[in-house]
Design goal:
InterPro entries: YlxR (IPR037465), YlxR-like_sf (IPR035931), YlxR_dom (IPR007393)
Strand order of the largest sheet: 4-3-5
Organism: Fictibacillus solisalsi
Protein name: YlxR domain-containing protein
CATH architecture: 2-Layer Sandwich
Distance between the termini: 37 Å
Radius of gyration: 13 Å
Strand content: 25-35%
CATH superfamily: YlxR-like
Number of helices: 3
Shape: globular
Helix content: 25-40%
Pfam families: YlxR
Number of domains: 1
């Protein structure tokens, strides 16, 4: 049997490459709304973060999510991420 290719993505905060399933996807929809995508399949521009509080804090401090999504990320998104951890 063939071995399946595992999709890899880079965390925007710590810049580590990890499996897509291990990361959390944040999406900016075509309408401009920014939200957490638990399924990883919603349409829009996506950015990935590790499932660690340190990465959430680093992304908020550096503004790397804002840069990647080309939109202002509301504080509610960061609150939802921290609540999920």
């Amino acid at each position: 049997m063939k071995t399946r290719k595992i999709p890899m993505r880079k965390c925007v905060a710590c810049q580590e490459m990890k499996e897509k399933k291990q990361l959390i996807r944040i999406v900016r929809s075509p309408e401009g709304e920014v939200f957490v995508d638990p399924t990883g399949k919603k349409s829009g521009r996506g950015a990935y973060l590790c499932n660690q509080a340190s990465c959430f804090a680093l992304a908020k401090k550096k503004g790397s999510l804002n840069n990647q999504l080309k939109a202002q990320v509301p504080d509610e998104v960061f609150a939802e991420l921290e609540k999920g951890v």
